[in-house]
Write a structure and sequence with these properties.
It contains 41 helices and 22 strands. By secondary structure, it is α/β, with parallel strands linked by helices. The strands form five sheets. Strands 13-14-15-16-17-18-19-20 form an eight-stranded parallel beta sheet, with helices on one face. Strands 5-10-6-9-8-7 form a six-stranded mixed beta sheet, sandwiched between helices. The relative contact order is 0.05.
């Protein structure tokens, strides 16, 4: 990621930043200048505590000058001298005369015994330097191991050192860099030649000619992982995994670009790394193996000409930071130091080839095995799911990895996208959001993930530091790629030809600067957003690397107000100009009007003010147009039969299991349902703040006016009946918009929420609970039939379920644990549930016990359906025992629960004594003829209860025969067909028997009609057409 941040330890101390003033010496001979540098290297004061200072007079052979060297005499010297300090003190033939040592303290000089040997000084210096480098390593490790907020979602155990996967690095050459840009094909991006691959550890090995490499240029487009690789390199050195170098000093070129004041190299190092103030004097005076890391060289406008940047070999000489970088690369400053530079491809050619020992190109994850390894390390981290149930979370993580691996193998377009490590990160972040979000409200938004993703890659990035416009990279992308994305959304296409690209990028190019910016964009950024299509027959077209990115950039293009006609653009410019000069004109006219009372001057002044006011009204119309576009795209009727957008995103990453068309085959009609949702998400305060950092400013007034216009369009359209998937999209839109006042007004009009057959993942449950929680009004009906709910889903939705009068939870595989949550729901003092349907759930006997407890204490429930819930006789007996304590239930459905005569009659006996219960459903149970006759004898006026068992009521047709058959027809796909066939045969026999017992022709006709319906249903069942 760009923008490598470095720790700033504060200003360096005087001892670490002040030179010895050696420039004033004019001594002949090259030998002295060399020795002079050696002396300067050991002339710094050490910061060891509680030491006594000694001054050693070094008599240099061939010199008349005696220099003073200050050492700190520690009470306990180090056990052994370090390797690099031994080099410093033994590399030359300098001898230390014994009689030249004296003590300095106070105002008098006290002579002490001379040092026994120069090894004592080496030991003392070793203690200070080794401690300083250890502190430096500890500081760098802490800083570079620190992850941004976006990484915290992957769990507390996530760290760069633990889950890093090195991208492929390919050795390159200047000739390859200077070649024209190749055709962007998948063959050029994947399967790089293995013979040219080089590892990070071998970048400084000798080249093909046997020469030692000192300068390495590591380059690659945006998103290939340059900065992350450098972070890992620093962390490896801190942990001893990069033994080639004894000292690593990283610099952020973005940080250096903000400073213009001259500064010396030594002062610069101690300013950034205060711990090194005792080591800095040794730089250049020994064979210390030092590595300078210059990350993001594109931020510096370097000039390698002698006329542009003077030569500088003195690390104490203050020069601009760019001059320090140039002279380091020239090897004129610290020639023995190694340097690694990271930059974008367009900047590489600015560095003269004679200063580069090796070019290395980062090729990303060109091998799908690297992609799989990255996903496995990211998504299988302990605590990644944030749930207490480690077992289920681990299984879900393994399932995700398996599906993702299969989709990578069969879907070349996804493999092409994950060629960039940045997009692998985006895939992991999106999957984590989809599968492991369980908080209410959700801690993130999908728009926020995409915005943060762009910040990680483009924060602080300028397209071309040499261009006077200094346009931010993201701003340029929003205007150009955003235009292409928007036109694709409007024309419903995802593949773009060369002509399409020229229309968006080149048609308005008029100046040399614009053409240069376009060239830089093609070299550094184009591959990040657009990639060649792998669909057969469309190899020469381009698609967005991640499909959802097209909709995000299209939304950003619209919200930024870039969708303007030529007249609107000219009008805006004129309005800004006139607005700026209107105040000055007002002052001038007021003065003139006092001297020359001309009547036309006030008129002229008012005319000048009319245009900005008129244009502001037109811009208000633009806000209405944005809101209208949002509403039109959000409620498209042709999208009513599609899956909700969250499922669409999930399928695009993991694929669709089971029979399907080829994944690279485009559908007949492209779907862009994320486009309006991203428009709403971009308008949220947090995303606007991040986009402001990227150079894409959305004013508060503009966001307010758009939200105001949306009330007229979006909320009005939402009041129409929406299909379940579209309603889920609308709720997700409100969540992404992050405007609580707007959401409350929108939800206030939703009295009925039908989400049947929508797969309610934990994320969707969190979204529903968060959006519905903005207000406290009661919900007339919440339909969650066949939504794959489980215990955790009910727990998330608990506050919403409390406020629902009619609650449909059929077909959700809710077992005994879920019934425990339902018991707590019904016993809550704020529960208003009056109609609860739990049909076709495996409630069982234990679940029946929880529900029986709920019935005993609940005061709101009037209708309870336990149809086909595997209660059995024992479960039904438990419910019957607790019914007496309930005073409000009016209808109870116990059909299709394998009840026998005893349990059925017991329930009816309890119902007869119940104050309000007047209807019990008992059809499709194992009731004998005797039980049937006993239940037939029940009369409402006498017993106070109706038992719905058969389609007949004595010698007449039951008033509820159509309801019973409708229940059978609706639930047939989920019931045992053979058992249903047997029960229908029994019903038919009962109808025929009752018809023969009646002589009333009208009743006979009714029997024949019902028999006809049952026979028709049996026929369809046998032929498999029902």
């Amino acid at each position: 990621m760009p923008g490598l941040a470095l720790p700033v330890a504060g200003r360096g101390s005087a001892a670490g930043s002040t030179s010895t003033g050696s420039r004033g010496l004019s001594l002949p001979g090259k030998e002295f200048s060399w020795r002079q540098r050696m002396l300067r290297a050991v002339q710094r004061q050490s910061c060891l505590p509680r030491g006594s200072w000694m001054q050693l007079h070094l008599s240099l052979p061939g010199s008349r000058v005696t220099r003073g060297v200050y050492l700190c005499a520690a009470s306990v010297p180090g056990a052994a001298s370090s390797y690099f300090l031994r080099k410093i003190l033994h590399a030359s033939s300098i001898s230390l005369p014994r009689g030249s040592v004296r003590y300095q303290g106070g105002s008098q000089d006290h002579f002490v015994r001379p040092s026994p040997s120069r090894h004592g000084m080496s030991h003392l210096r070793n203690v200070a330097s080794s401690d300083a480098i250890k502190k430096h390593q500890k500081s760098l490790s802490a800083w570079f191991s620190h992850q941004p907020n976006e990484e915290r979602q992957f769990g507390p155990s996530f760290s760069l050192d633990a889950v890093h996967v090195d991208p492929v690095i390919q050795e390159s050459s200047l000739e390859e860099i200077l070649k024209p840009l190749p055709d962007l094909t998948i063959q050029n991006q994947l399967q790089q030649p293995c013979s040219q691959v080089i590892s990070l550890q071998n970048l400084f090995d000798v080249d093909a000619c046997g020469r030692q490499v000192k300068n390495v240029v590591l380059y690659g487009p945006v998103g290939t992982g340059k900065s992350t690789l450098i972070k890992k390199m620093v962390v490896d050195w801190c942990h001893g995994r990069l033994p080639r170098f004894e000292l690593v000093i990283p610099f952020s070129c973005e940080d250096l670009s903000h400073s213009r004041a001259p500064i010396s190299l030594r002062h610069l190092i101690t300013k950034k790394y205060q711990h090194l103030r005792d080591v800095v004097p040794m730089l250049g005076a020994s064979n210390l193996k030092v590595l300078f890391i210059l990350n993001g060289l594109e931020h510096l406008n370097l000039d390698f000409r002698l006329a542009g940047t003077e030569l500088c070999c003195d690390p104490n000489e203050p020069v601009p930071p760019s001059a320090i970088v140039v002279n380091l690369l020239r090897k004129y400053l610290l020639p023995e130091a190694s340097i690694i530079v990271t930059t974008r491809p367009s900047v590489v050619r600015r560095i003269p080839g004679k200063y580069v020992g090796r070019y290395a190109k980062i090729c990303g994850f060109s091998d799908t095995n690297l992609q799989k390894l990255y996903f496995q390390m990211r998504l299988s981290q302990p605590g990644c799911s944030g749930e207490d149930s480690a077992g289920s979370s681990s299984g879900e993580q393994e399932n995700l990895l398996e599906m993702l691996s299969r989709n990578l193998e069969r879907h070349n377009q996804i493999a092409a996208a994950c060629f960039l490590p940045s997009y692998c990160w985006l895939v992991c972040a999106t999957l984590h959001f989809l599968y492991f979000t369980r908080t209410v409200p959700p801690s993130q938004t999908l728009t926020g993930i995409y915005t943060s993703f762009l910040r990680l890659n483009f924060s602080g990035e300028v397209l071309d530091s040499t261009d006077p416009t200094n346009i931010s990279m993201m701003n340029y992308v929003a205007k150009t790629v955003g235009k292409l994305a928007y036109e694709g959304v409007m024309s419903r296409k995802t593949c773009f030809s060369e002509d399409d690209l020229q229309q968006c990028f080149e048609v308005e190019m008029k100046t040399e600067s614009e053409l240069n910016l376009l060239e830089v964009f093609r070299s550094d950024v184009f591959r990040f957003f657009l990639t060649p299509c792998v669909q057969p027959g469309k190899e020469h077209t381009f698609v967005f690397t991640i499909p959802a990115m097209q909709e995000y950039l299209a939304a950003l293009y619209v919200v930024l107000g870039e969708k303007k006609t030529l007249a609107q653009r000219v009008g805006k410019e004129l309005s800004e100009i006139i607005g700026k000069v209107s105040e000055d004109v007002a002052v001038v006219l007021s003065v003139i009007s006092k001297v020359l009372p001309l009547r036309f001057l006030p008129v002229l002044f008012n005319l000048l003010k009319i245009f900005p006011r008129y244009f502001s009204r037109l811009s208000g119309k633009d806000r209405d147009a944005i809101a209208h576009t949002m509403a039109e795209e959000l409620f498209k009727e042709e999208d009513y039969n599609n899956d909700d957008v969250l499922d669409q995103i999930n399928f695009s990453i993991l694929g669709v299991e089971g029979p399907m068309c080829h994944p690279d085959e485009a559908p007949d009609d492209e779907v862009f349902e994320l486009f309006p949702i991203f428009m709403g998400g971009i308008l949220s305060r947090r995303n606007r703040a991040i986009l402001e950092q990227l150079g894409c400013s959305i004013k508060n007034l503009a966001a307010f006016e758009i939200a105001k216009a949306m009330k007229k369009t979006v909320i009005r359209n939402s009041r129409k009946g929406l299909p379940p998937s579209e309603l889920m999209d609308y709720l997700f839109f409100l969540h992404e918009f992050q405007n609580e006042r707007f959401t409350a007004e929108a939800i206030r009009s939703l009295r009925t929420v039908n989400l049947s057959s929508v797969k309610m993942t934990p994320l969707k449950c969190s979204v529903l609970a968060s959006v519905m929680g903005t207000i406290c009004h009661e919900v007339e009906e919440l339909n969650l039939t066949s939504c794959n709910l489980d215990t955790s889903s009910l727990r998330i939705l608990f506050p919403v379920l409390l406020r629902c009068k009619a609650l449909h939870l059929q077909l959700n595989s809710l077992g005994s644990d879920a019934c425990k949550e339902i018991r707590d729901l019904l016993l809550h003092d704020k529960c208003v549930v009056s109609n609860l349907r739990l049909a076709n759930n495996p409630v069982g006997e234990q679940g029946a016990r929880y529900l029986a407890e709920a019935l005993a204490g609940n005061r709101s429930l009037t209708h309870l359906s336990l149809l086909h819930t595997a209660l059995g006789n024992q479960g039904t007996e438990v419910i019957a025992q607790h019914l007496a304590k309930n005073q409000h239930l009016q209808e109870l459905n116990l059909g299709y629960n394998s009840l026998t005569d005893t349990a059925a009659l017991h329930v009816v006996e309890v119902a007869k004594k119940h104050a309000t219960l007047d209807k019990v459903h008992l059809y499709f149970n194992d009731i004998s003829e005797d039980g049937k006759r006993a239940l037939h004898s029940l009369r409402m006026d006498r017993d106070g209860v109706r038992a719905l068992v058969f389609l007949t009521a004595g010698t007449d047709v039951s008033d509820y025969w159509s309801s019973i058959l409708n229940v059978v027809q609706r639930n047939l796909p989920f019931w045992d067909r053979e058992r249903v066939r047997q029960h229908l045969a029994l019903l038919l026999q009962d109808l025929e028997s009752s018809r023969r017992q009646t002589a009333n022709p009208w009743r006979k006709a009714k029997f024949l009609r019902v028999e006809s319906e049952v026979k028709k249903m049996l026929g369809k069942l046998q032929h498999g057409t029902l």
